[in-house]
Amino acid sequence: MAASFFCLKIGEGAELSLFRDDTMSLLLKGLDAASLRQQVTANNLANMNTPGFQRSDVSFEDQLLKAKGQTNAPLSRTHQKHFPLTPNPDIAPLIKTDRTTVRRIDGSNADIERDMLNMVSNQLRYNSYVQQLNTRFNNWRFVINEGRR
Fold first, then answer.
1. With b meaning 16 or more CB within 10 Å and e meaning fewer, what string describes 33-70?
2. What share of the chain is helix, strand, coil (3-state, %, to 5)?
3. Could you tell me the pTM of the whole model?
4. How far, in Å, CA of 5 to CA of 21, rounded?
5. How many domains are contained in the chain?
6. 7 φ/ψ angles, rounded to the nearest 5 degrees
7. Which residue has the higher pLDDT, 89 or 1?
C-alpha cells in the first residue's frame, strides 16, 4: 500500500509515521479504490461480448459514507469548535458483481455506455484525490521551509 512511503522503520517491527493522519490515509485508500475501479471497469469492457458475463463494480465511497461519524473510540464532540471526529480508516474497496440484471439475449449484463461513463467519472475522482494529496504535501513543505527561517 502507498502508506508505506510515510513510515520510517525504527527497529524490529516498529515504525514511526511521518506526515500521516486519518485524512491522508483515506485519500490514499481512495487512490487505491480508484485504481481498482479502473481495472474492474477495463475488465468489464474487455468482456463486453462474452456470453453470460456479469459486470462488476467497486464499492468504496458508499462504505465511507456509512462510516461517517464512527470512530475507533467512544468519543463525542461537546462543543462545535472542537475538531470533528474522523471516520474509521479501516475502510477498504470491495468488488461487487452485479448478478441481478441481464441486458442482452446472451445473458451478459455488460453495458458499454455505463462503463465508459464510469471510467470518465473515476478519472475525475482519481484526479481530485491526487489534487488533495498534493495540497497536503504543499502545506507540509511550507511548514518545513518556513520553520527553518
1. bbebbbebbeebbebeeeeebbbbbbebeebbeebeee
2. 50, 10, 40
3. 0.72
4. 13
5. 1
6. -115, 140
7. 89
